[in-house]
Amino acid sequence: MSLLRELAIAIPIFIVAMIIASQLVVVPTSSMTPTIVKGDMVVVEKTNILGLIDELNPENIKVGDIIVYAKNSSGTPELIIHRVVGINETGGQKYYIMKGDNNSIDDPAMVPNSAVIGESVNWNSKPITIPWVGNIFLWLKGVT
Known about the structure:
Layout: H1 3-21, E1 22-26, E2 41-46, E3 48-49, E4 53-54, E5 66-73, E6 76-90, E7 93-99, E8 111-112, E9 116-120, E10 122-123, E11 126-127, E12 129-130, H2 134-141
Antiparallel strand pairs: 1-2, 2-9, 2-12, 3-4, 5-6, 5-9, 6-7, 7-8, 10-11
């Protein structure tokens, strides 16, 4: 088989695998500025794929990682993307202390493993983002 034909088969398979294994998360606030700007879309590695395959093990998360977690406020889950600044273990369960890079204090509640949705995909130690595209989604949702 020629190299060109092999690439023509391999590249679409790779792209489909990346789409299934990743998720784009819109950043709705400036809490992660300057690392991630409001309106950016961040590429996130999911904790599991289609509920079948465990991709990211929350146990491997360390201080300094940027993760996405689900926060339930008033019954509606909200996705938060912040940096891990500490890890506590209580009763055999890991909890993450989170903080936005632009915030002066830590998030008010620790985050359990079960709330972790994914971790930012990094390139040269920086999260991979699609700048400003998320602003369209924020505008459609009425977020200013």
